[in-house]
Amino acid sequence: MSQTYSDLELDALRELANIGSGNAATALSRLIGRAIDVSVPNAVVLPLADAVDAAGPAESEVTAVLLRVGGELDALVLLLFSPQDAADICGLLDVEPGTVLGASALGEVGNILGASYVGALAKMSGLELELSPPQVVANMVSAIVSTVLVSHAGESGLAFMLDSELTIERASCSLSMMLVPTRAGIAELLDRLGL
């Protein structure tokens, strides 16, 4: 089942991404103690099969941070970091990548980013939302995205995908973030936004 969204609906979702990225930059800057800019050059709504493809080559390794959203919207937030970007972020936090402490640091960065976007979503929509603690896992893109997302939203589900660029004192890294509501979630969200 394919769902299309109007330019107005997509603009509202992009605005949500921009507000969330501003909140995320402020919170991450406090954590790291350095100036950070978070931009969202791309925000799209995709069928899950396309979201899996857009997340990167199926066989590539990523570190994923998964947060469950509860309350008035049942959804998942999934953040994907390439090995290099994960290592760069761990380096900024003075922790060794690939260790328990490194995974914990990435989980906290993912928690801050996810909470910033979900907080913006709650504020704009009036939905009461709660986040679970982050789970961190390293695996191939296909294993993480297809297993986690399809089990949550079903084969015909949709993903709201944000490609984010973090610039930290002239060094940059990228991540992909997906918000995957259950089937009725995006409709409920757009309805709350008055669209």
Structure overview:
This protein has 195 residues and is an alpha+beta fold. It has helices spanning 7-32, 48-54, 83-92, 100-125, 141-153, 185-192, and strands at residues 36-47, 61-71, 75-81, 129-131, 135-140, 158-168, 171-181. Strands 1, 2, 3, 4, 5, 6 and 7 form a seven-stranded antiparallel sheet that branches. α1 (7-32) crosses α4 (100-125) and α2 packs antiparallel against α5.
Brief synopsis:
The chain has six helices and seven strands, in the order αβαββααββαββα. It is of the alpha+beta class and 195 residues long.
SSE topology string: HEHEEHHEEHEEH
Assess the beta-strand content as a share of residues. 25-35%
Give the CATH topology. Chemotaxis protein chec
Q: Mind summarizing the main beta sheet?
A: 7 strands, antiparallel
Helix content: 40-55%
Unreliable stretches covering 5 or more consecutive residues: none
CATH class: Alpha Beta
Structural class: alpha+beta
Q: What count of domains describes the coordinates?
A: 1
Number of helices: 6
Task: Spell out the CATH superfamily.
Answer: CheC-like
Beginning-to-end CA distance, first to last residue? 21 Å
Q: Under the CATH scheme, which architecture would be assigned?
A: 3-Layer(aba) Sandwich
